[in-house]
Amino acid sequence: MTIKRREFVVGAGVLGVASVAGGSIAPQPASAEHAMQMGKKQTAQASPSTPAQTATSTPPEKRTYTFFNPDEATWVEAAVNHMIPADDLTASGVDLGVAYFIDQQLAGGFGQGGKMFMQGPWHPGLPQQGWQVRLSPAEAYRAAIPAINAYCTKTYGKDFSSITESQRDEVLNGLGTGKVDSGPLPAGLFLDLLYQNVMEGFFGDPAYGGNRNKAAWKMIGYTGATGNFVDAIESYWNKPYTEEPQSIADLS
Amino acid sequence: MATKLKSVDAVIVGFGWTGAVLARELTKAGLNVVAIERGGMRDTTPEFSAPMIHDELRFAIRHDLMQDASRETLTFRNNVNQTALPIRRWGSFLPGNGVGGAGVHWNGQHYRFAPSEFRIRSHYQERYGKKFIPEGMTIQDWPVTYDELEPYYDRFEYLCGTAGKAGNIKGVIQQGGNPFEGPRAREYPNPAMKRSFQMKMFEDATREMGFHPYVQPSSDVTQPYTNPEGVDMGSCVYCGFCERFGCEMSAKASAQSTLLPVLLKDPKFELRTLSHVTKVNLDSTRKKATGVTYVDSQGREFEQPADLVLLCAFVLHNARLMMLSGIGRIYDPKTGKGGVGRNYAYQMSSSVTAHFNDKVFNPFMGAGACAMIMDDFNYDNFDHGPLGFIGGSYLCVESKGQRPIDFRNLPPGEPRWGKGWKQSVSHWYNRTFVIAAFGSVTAQRGNYLDLDPNYKDGFGNPLLRMTFDFSKNDLDMSKYCTDRAADIAKHMNPDKMGINYRKGPYSIVPYQTTHTTGGTMMGADPSTSAVNRYLQSWDVSNVFVMGAGAFPQNPSHNPTGTVGALAYWAADAITKKYLKSPGRLVHT
User: Fold this and answer.
1) pLDDT value of residue A58
2) Element (H, E) at B11
3) Is the Cβ pair B57, A37 closer than 8 Å?
4) What percentage of chain A exceeds 70 in pLDDT?
5) Model confidence at A62, in pLDDT bands (50, 70, 90)?
6) pLDDT band per the 50, 70, 90 thresholds, residue B176
7) Nearest CB partner across the interface for B88, out of A89, A118, A204
8) How many whole angstroms separate alpha carbon A158 and alpha carbon A161?
9) What's the gap in Å between the CA of B65 and the closest CA on chain A?
10) From the CA of A212, how many Å to the nearest CA of chain B?
């Protein structure tokens, strides 16, 4: 498998511009039509070529994965960009930091099963009894990815990152039904975990490394950590609320 | 070897809503009170400060304020033919942890139960005949009436600064309130919440259909308020971060925003945090508690002697502590005997989504208890005769802050990912609302709590075991009420709609509600209940057990209003009756 080197660079300073080697990280401007639909002010978006302010700011800090190995990174990036492809609404999931978000979550307490009850005895259990596999979420990724790649190689002659879009749909849907083997994990568990983590990275606060430039919030018209609608809840009846979303960092 | 501490008048196990109410009432009566809380200290400042608290991932998804399941969980199965396995991560319900307990992360939805609910078995038998209640359904009359509880409901509402519009004052129906509610002595302390656009649509539609919508009673306070304890509360700003969050405004009623400022200044009160009670100690007669044993954060074991022991932890932990301590008889589903663990119940939930191309709802605006409700299909407010089931649901449109990791309601058949999904979610997020049904769960012979034979917590004590499934009665009820919600949605003529029925078997995976009830139920008969009408243990008379565990079944409306009322009711019995003559308050 080709190992693709990935580097993330986050711009320091007021613009918060981010760029990624080999790809655009800034969301493309929403179309005028969509902006009208959403009733939002179309705001100037930083373009990938916008230089970070250099005179007054420290050099941009590089980001890198601290949990994924290169094969896992390649797989997760392919899955993230399949679920969140670049289009006129946002940049791709990877460029929005979603794969980086998942990596950081798996490296930390969530991924290590820090608040999960992990004592035996172990039994497969029934679906309604939830997670009964003797693996933390991070270990579940580690176990599932090689198994899914093996299935892809056997079925399509290529690993997950190299198959076509419709084949990826087949594989992801197959994970849900159990048609595609995900190693020691029961059917559906890995897809549910992956899907939940992708949504967390896309829609969570940018403080965690995903949802860069609040792109997902702008896409749906969510206001983020903003916190006072005492008048607006009645004055905006059936009217779109046009204020820009605010992240925790914006308000700190 | 436990270090034995100096005796106190009363020890409180768990410092949430009921612990705070009991601590205040007993210190006022002159008692020295120690409260022991397994979680940490937390207060409005700094723990609930904005903007930090407005973090969906940390609080709503990763459950920052909840019990740590790695240290203590419970096991679950649907019925006795299955092997119970540990709930390894929370899903269906979220037990709280730390000072304020689950009362920190509630929504502020503050109800009273209908008068008929307190005599449910008698009521249904009188109206529909003795055969109407099926075999195996163990619903029971409460050993207390609505009229007896009314002054205590009132007291808890005024403590919380509850916002609402009365529907019935001393028997006179009030315009704009809930006409089905029991009579109340006076109006709510604060005016009702504002209405969002979707609440207004629901209000108009249901009124046109002949129903009786009302604004949900809310303990998210609607104007600056000083409660009867002299504590100042803030005013709700409709930020949409209530459920699973603390309130930075002191607007949502909790122990922190209503009682803690008074208690922390009181020399008769002491709060010990990060201390886990493992057992209530009994004397050699097994009829009197001598205090509790707890382990602090350094692993040191202490014995805290006390004249009174008040179990004020969450429903599940109170039941487990009774079982671990040998207080009362553990319920046996084969014989139907034993009061502890009996009649565990839950709350039924389902929903209808309504999607409108040409409307905008700004679903991020709102508060945990900002909703339009109707009780026309709740309790016995409709004719159950031809329907054949017991119970009902309240139907509502809630504007409680639709944070996008959790809430993205798309019409049926939309893609789950990819470009099509992105277009769908960007279009529908702001053009959709939900009509939810929250309903009763009847007690069943096979639904109960006991101790698990296979799994233990970090202290080596058996975990609690939950055996629970939805009954046919409750699924039939839910189907009927969900269809009524769908009728209302259709009346509004949406472009698309989806119906999400609740189906069996019960699963602990998807979040439904944290309104677990029963297990330490109150009753008139010591052989079929854990505590008497004053929440006093039948078997160990200086132990009182608070909380929704006392409910003989789950009545539909959310529990906190009744939990608070029962805490005041029990506190009154302790201070006015028990302290004068310690011993059993009810003789059978």
Assistant:
1) 79
2) strand B8-13
3) no
4) 77
5) confident
6) very high
7) A118
8) 8
9) 12
10) 15
